[in-house]
Structure prediction request, 371 residues.
Amino acid sequence: MTWNMLADNINYAVAMVLFCIGFYTVIVRSNLIKKIIGLMVMQVAVFFFLVSVGYLSGGSAPIVMPGEVPSAMVNPLPQAMILTAIVIAVSTTALFLSLVLKFYSHYGTVDMDKAKEDQR
Amino acid sequence: MKKALAAAFVCALAVLLVYVVALLPPMGDPDNPTNQHVVPRYLEQGAQEAGTRNIVAGIVFNYRGYDTMGEVAIFSAALAGIFAVLGTGRRKIGRAILDESRVSFSFVSGTAVVLLTPLVMVFSIYVILYGMDLPGGGFQGGATIGAGAILFTAAFGFCRAQERISHRLRIILESAAISGFFLVGTVGVLGGGNFLTYMLPSLGAGAGAAVRTVMLVLLQFGIGIKVGVICTSILFALLREEETDDLEHAC
Prediction:
């Protein structure tokens, strides 16, 4: 029975797999740029999951036009939240990158392990 | 060893998460709890209550205007952090990575950008203005403004772009955008309603709706300018390379 349910919720499952790929990148890589890329993949997975939650099969865009039925529109709430979250993701990623720039100008590398070896 | 351990942990986490989401109600079902609670009211009455045919814009600027205001504050905090880490741009810089490119300035790309930039700006204003009735809005239009600035910087180099869009201008625009957001929110309080509700009962229904539309347009423009300035400022801050006191070779 779980396999049928998984086929229905394939978007959720893909989002979770994407999240885990990003999480693995954050854990394993010692290159700070790659860590940031992993974080961004995790963010995109969460956005994808939340937008999928608001999906309605056969639904139309949530714009009130003559002849559109309100009950046939997709859920506008996750879309509004994700819209602002995307811009926040951009600004926080820029903050991470600026910290990495400072790290590079201090240690001469963006690799955490190499910076640790140089410290010794 | 460390990698294998991490891979095993992440695989276990993935199996657990996928098993849990498979047990959620099927995606796209109208009877899902996520489509039941407050959403039917947004969809049925959003056009009257919020004054926007685009329900997403109505949620962002009216129903959940507080959230949007907090997010605007987050942009400012992130930009302040970037300036604190990388320098504000008040001191001149010696060189920028982009201006040391081996490829010299191309006449063709310069002309194309000169012709394209006004169109990009007009399109962004269109997206902002139509955001209440059609797909679009302040965030998307602001991102388009930022893309125009990035295009100009890529063609003409960092020094000329920074002359055109000076630090002072960006600071003024950003402060105007965020304080405009607060002021427009306060108009609702003066009219006897809540913050950011656009209730002006003394004006009557027709004039009240007109005032609400004007306030929404102001908010959309505030957000658009804010996002555009943030994108440009982030680009300039990341491109800055070395601060210098040698003013002859600086820009």
User: Anything to note?
Assistant: Chain B has two domains: 1-45, 52-243. Chain B touches chain A through 63 residues (CB under 8 Å). The mean pLDDT of chain B is 80.
